[in-house]
Amino acid sequence: MDTTIAWLLEGPEWLKYATTTQLLDTEGDADAALRDSAIQKLLARLKDNRRGLAALITGAVSSEVQGSALWDLFFLADIGFKAVHLGIEREIDTILNSQLRDGSFITEAGMESNYYCKSAILLASLARLGYADAPPLVRYLERLLSEQRPNDGWHCEDYRDACPMDNLNTLMLLSQYEAYRKDRRFNGALNLLLEHWQKRDSGYRLTGFGTGRRYRSLQYPAIKYGILRVLDVISLFPYGTAQPAFQDMLDFVRSKARDGRYFAEMPPRAYQDFDFDQTAVPSRWITFLVKRIEIRYGKPLKSEAA
Predict the structure, then answer these.
(1) Phi then psi for 73, rounded to 5 degrees?
(2) CB-based contacts of 293: which residues, under 8 Å, 6+ apart?
């Protein structure tokens, strides 16, 4: 067995579940994963009426805050859980029923209905949790696609250029649909993210977003615009992975490995029960994410290919 995968399988039950189902493509033990004490604490936080999923429809949750319900849900969906595993179907139904007539969702205070950089985070998680074909998501996608800018993507404001964060989060949602992964309509949005990296040393910025130290650090959850989530999203689009800039980005991340393992950088300080929230030892979860990108890309490290 691949030595990295063997190391991942030595981790907690929730990580074994993610590794088994996503990297080995075999059946995992969701019940054992859910019994993990850290996962149980995270679920309790998610179900809290003041700060959990119920607060999403009140505007009390912010996508800018680590440890908010948006990112707790994102993490659980990233592990591979479904809503039925988590027992949150009622809460999700309440969220879906809050959809506006125009197909949009207001997920936090002060946002407009076309702030896809925010609402797409939630909708991408719901798609992964088993709601991809739910009528509210279909209506949301119809509106999202109707407001795509020619050739380059999305922006919530009246700027000439598309916004990299809007593009990243909308592509994160679109990547959950097989039919969209090879859709040429999104090549421009992918190009914007890739070209931003290509111009990283020229001081080039896109509507306030750069590719400096924070962007280049291995953070999770990457609530900001960062290289690990950019790679993760693009890895699901064949056009994106075929571009030289994708290989260059992945090589940059690989250069951070120590004996094939990765360390969290600039940890969030909101997930202290998980190894991506500390820097003293290698993070199995960050390593899992890079390995998942490599498997999707189909080009593992030479030392692992033998």
Answers:
(1) -65, -40
(2) 231, 232, 235, 250
SS3 245: helix
Distance CA 191, CA 239 (A): 9
Position 119: which residue type?
Answer: S
List the one residue out of 90, 114, 88 whose CA is nearest residue 100. Answer: 114
**Residues 27 and 21: beta-carbon distance below 8 Å:** yes
Question: In 3D, which of 106, 188, 98, 91 has the Cα closest to residue 148?
Answer: 188
Alpha-helical (H) ranges within the chain are 3-8, 13-18, 30-34, 37-46, 69-79, 83-86, 89-96, 116-126, 135-146, 164-174, 178-181, 187-198, 213-216, 227-234, 238-241, 244-254, 284-297, 302-305
**CA 245 → CA 17, 177, 190, 304, distances in Å?**
32, 24, 11, 23
pTM above 0.85, yes or no: yes
pLDDT per residue as tens digits for the range 194-238: 999 999 988 777 877 989 999 999 999 988 899 999 999 999 999
Residue type, 277: D
pLDDT of 299: 57
Distance (Å) of CA 9 to CA 4, 21, 93, 97, 287? 9, 12, 34, 39, 12
CA–CA separation, 121 vs 133, rounded Å? 17
Confidence band of 306 (pLDDT split at 50, 70, 90): very low
Q: Which residues contact 259 (CB under 8 A, 6 or more apart)?
A: none
The structure tokens listed for 212 are 């400096």
User: Are 196 and 209 in contact, with CB atoms under 8 Å apart?
Assistant: yes
Cross-strand bridge partners of residue 262:
283
* Three-state DSSP string of 142-172: HHHHHCCECCCECCCCCCCCCCHHHHHHHHH
Residue 14 near residue 39 (C-beta atoms within 8 A): yes
